[in-house]
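Annotated sample (chain length 348).
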Amino acid sequence: MSDTAQKSPSPRSSPRAAAGGAPPTVLEADPDAYEDDGDSAFGPSDQGSETTSLASSIYRFREENGRTYNAYKEGAYFLPNDESENSRLDLQHNLCILMQDNRLFISPAGKDKPLGRVLDAGCGTGIWAIDFADEHPESSVVGVDLSPIQPPFVPPNLQFLIDDLESEWTYTTPFDFIYMRLLCGSIKDWPNLFRQSFQNLNPGGYIEVCDPLNPLICDDGTLPADCALVKWNHLFVEASIKLGASLISVRDYEKQLVEAGFINVEKVEFKWPINSWPKDKKYKELGSWVYENILEGLQALSLMLFTNVLGWTPEELEVFLVDVRKDLKNRSIHAYWPFYIVYGQKPE
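Output written by the structure step:
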């Protein structure tokens, strides 16, 4: 892996047009790939709603199976909010920026006029909102999330709020750009979320939504149907559906944005290889980031869904994940997750 692959890519220029660099129709495997080579870009690895300020009561997290989860709207989000998961979310941000050729977003938002107010809906650690606020000091940026896991020192044009995006929005001033990334699996009613986004945008404003599609795909028959990774991914999706926040909802974003009233709706497809199996240089590097992201987050992604929803014990899950990690590491498996960025504009 080159030196550049070992650094976190930093966004330095915002887009002014739809993304180039879309993936080849079929990713070609690297003929030099082999099964077990420590596939890590980062060194060794153990493979209004009732909008409130960050009040002290919000910091009372709950603990379950050794991980902490948000207490505000308890159970609304299946991932932990502890330091380990927050570190992975920041890694995941850099993965997305690399995928987008070091751009923070790909829609034409801001092409014709400055973006006055910007909403990062489901901001997580706040890293995207911070980068955007730094790059756009002329914009007023609001980051919203269920958990108060954002840093205390941020650009002066950025404000963080604790809110449930699925409750009624009560913002008094509309936005020019609404950004949502990796919320699939945490939203139960996407059509309503898109309607509220439409209502809270200025005419001509944009929305951009970014999510992977599950389950994973293989184009060349190298993904055994009975392998642990396939089983895990299907159970992961099954549990999300039972929970009421499906991980396959990304399939409907394009149609739902149109139904909400958006025009100029576009969908751009990327691919997240499970590791560095592709021959293409960009997708080989991207695969290394995906591998590290999933490997680091596999327990966090699985724990609540498998134990609370599917009825597994934590011990059963850990034994199962050993084989899932082996499959993730196997570069003879040429699998990937489709990743879609869908954006649309509110009519002038």
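Annotation: The chain has seven helices and ten strands.
Annotation: The first strand starts at residue 62 and ends at 64.
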